[in-house]
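batch_manifest entry 22 of 60
target: Endo/exonuclease/phosphatase domain-containing protein
source organism: Elaeophora elaphi
requested by: lab member K.T.
priority: normal
notes from requester: please return tokens only, no post-processing; we will run our own comparison against the previous entry in this batch. if the run fails, retry once and flag.
--- input ---
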Amino acid sequence: FSELAFYRNYPIRYQFRQKLNNKIFKKIFFACSLHGDWKFQWPTTHILENEAKMIDSYRELHPNVLENPGITWSTVEKMSSSGWSWTIPEPQDRIDYIYYRSSLLSPIESYTYQGHETVYPKPLHWRNDYPSDHFAVITTFHLR
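--- output ---
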């Protein structure tokens, strides 16, 4: 599964990945997977990490994606408006990153931020003290 990584709280599927790593299983399992079960390797992420040798500051401090998914989307959309009368859950993904590349920097803290108050989904989102439709990623760096 070099192109695919397990996402969120799917430890059973993670165990399958460790044990069953063959092409037939990949094709069948991917074809049968439900929306939200996988993290896709985006081309831009691949370029930043593998060609530009940049480092994801959040993931460096929180390497276990199952324990710390770093969800930043969506703060206010919990159900998708695209058909099915608002009955399909909106994907909760990680879409915000802080990349760096420097031997003089090392991250010492990284977290998602959503304001100080409770976050209300639509239609009460106007009450939120945090004026965005996704959370921020905040990383504190140590300068050597």
